[in-house]
Amino acid sequence: MTDQTIKERKLLLQEVEGLLSLITLPVLVVDTTGVVIHANPAAEHIWQRSQVVLLNQTLQTLVDTPKLLEFVKKGKPLRDFAVELMDGRGKRHAYLCRLHPLFVDRRVTGAILQFTIQVKETESEKNRKFVTRYNFEDIRGHSPAILALKEQSRTIAKSDSTVLIRGESGTGKEVLAQSIHRNSARKNGPFVAINCAAIPEALLESELFGYEDGAFTGAKKGGKPGRFELALNGTLFLDEIGDMPQYLQAKLLRVLQERRMERVGGSESIPVDVRLIAATHKDLDAMIVSGQFREDLFYRLNVIPLFVPPLRHRKEDLYDLIQFYLKWFGDRLGKEPKRFSTQAIKCFMDYHWPGNIRELENTLEYIVNLEIGDLVTISSLPASIRGNQANDEILSVPQQHFPPSPHAMDNQGAAVEGVLEQSEEQLIIEAIRRFGKSTEGKRKAAEFLGISVATLYRRLQKINRKG
Least crowded by CB within 10 Å, which of 143, 284, 295, 442? Predict the structure, then answer.
């Protein structure tokens, strides 16, 4: 290396050091062995050592994260990699590291490391993750079964007793659980939910009860709290409890009895101050007989039993649900208001709704997306719902083996328009019968039909003149 080259490199290094000194975040420049070859003033402050002392220090003595050196050697760039810095007193601080590798002639020669402080979540920020979205007002319908369920749930909400919610998939069991929490004395605490069927059996125990440092291969350093700890002073919702493996059923039973638990790999007994709400769509009685579910756990869970009826058992709520979701998706998707023909409503009433509210919601979103006009007819419905009734709404026109004449086409169009007009009239009559003939009843009928009150009055006058 010539004297000129050495001089140029020194000048370049001085310029780089000058630029790094302007950066307010701590920066280290290291070689491939992890030895510090430059540190900026901000790094002096973090490690409480002068730049002279920091030079020639190894990365291992400054950062308690061995993997960081591996990434330096590989020349692998990093962004927001969690590390722990050790200050002059040996105290650890959580930081995020950004690594920019240095290359000379395509060979890794070191890296620039920039550190930003990792802000830990406050208790209120943690709780914000576990807030509820639903209340009893979100359980829509005025059928006797739904009104009785809401009244019973409001009554037991203030209690701390364990609740077991049973019902088919898609009936809204979590909506009910959140509503109970929102009206309980624990409403300011977290609502922590876990689906026992969605988490692999090998991970479910650590998710529920947490684990200690080194409990198993891959365990997070310092351990991790489980859902029981996260739900402290709040509510823990165990969805699909019927899918919980038997060895965990025994551990859950002990927690419910003792109101204390231990983390996986730990020995400390931790108090459990949570209200438990469990839910399932499975037949637990049959599972007890077959030995798949513990009978003693069932009695611990079934202190307050609640049953959410399937949609096919409360079809009188369909009108309200259709009205709500049509408006909801219309507003959300920027679509014009839609109304159902009599035959389309009949299809909904005749359908058995195996997917319950979830299926109804998806079906109405489908309709709002695809229906161009404002009138939803049978042809607008998914094939699974309309079944063989699609022809009920269309006039039977004899097949023609040649192009129809314009006159025939006009007659057919007029006939179809007549059918649609008749369907609209029937829909209006049914709406008035449902909501009443009072001013308020007509306002609700107009809202349900997706038309203005003035339009409703005009069409009623037209119907009356025909009568």
Answer: 295
440/34 Cα distance (integer angstroms): 78
For the domain covering 395-467, report its CATH number.
1.10.10
Cα 349 to chain centroid distance, Å, stands at 30
Task: Please state the rounded mean pLDDT for residues 39-55.
Answer: 84
How many residues are given for the chain? 467
Q: How far is CA 274 from CA 185, 230, 259, 260, in A?
A: 11, 9, 9, 11
SS3 for 82? strand
Model confidence at 300, pLDDT cuts 50, 70, 90, reads very high
Pick the CATH number of 318-392 from 1.10.8.60, 3.40.50.620, 2.60.40.10, 2.40.30.10: 1.10.8.60
| Residues near 249 by beta carbon (within 8 Å), at least 6 away in sequence | 293, 294, 297
Query: CB of 444 within 8 A of CB of 459?
Result: no
Q: Please compute the mean of the pLDDT values over residues 113-121 and round it to a whole number.
A: 76
What count of other Cβ atoms lies within 10 Å of the Cβ of residue 282?
Answer: 16
What is 20-117's CATH number, 3.30.360.10, 1.10.3720.10, 3.30.450.20, 1.20.120.530?
3.30.450.20
Determine if residue 237 is left, alpha or beta; phi over 0 gives left, psi from -120 to 50 gives alpha, anything else beta: beta
Half-sphere exposure in the Cβ direction for 436 (13 Å, CA): 6
CATH 3.30.450.20 spans which residues of the chain?
A: 20-117
Burial class (CB in 10 A: 0-12, 13-18, 19+), 319: buried
Fold for 125-309, please state it: Rossmann fold (3.40.50)
Residues 6+ apart with CB under 8 A from 297: 249, 250, 252, 253, 256
Q: Tell me the pLDDT tens digit for each residue of 58-83.
A: 998 899 888 899 889 988 888 778 88
- From-to residues of CATH 3.40.50.300 in the chain: 125-309
**What CA–CA distance (Å, rounded) separates 260 from 250?**
14
Residue 451 has, within 13 A of its CA and on its CB side, a CA count of: 20
Q: Which amino acid is at 322?
A: I
Question: What residue spans in the chain does CATH classification 1.10.8.60 cover?
Answer: 318-392
Phi-psi region of 233 (alpha: psi -120 to 50; beta: other; left: phi over 0): left
Judged by DSSP in three states, 53 sits in: helix
Write out the residue limits of the CATH 1.10.10 domain(s) in the chain.
395-467
Neighbours of 56 (CB within 10 A): 9
Look-up of token digits 């008749």: 422
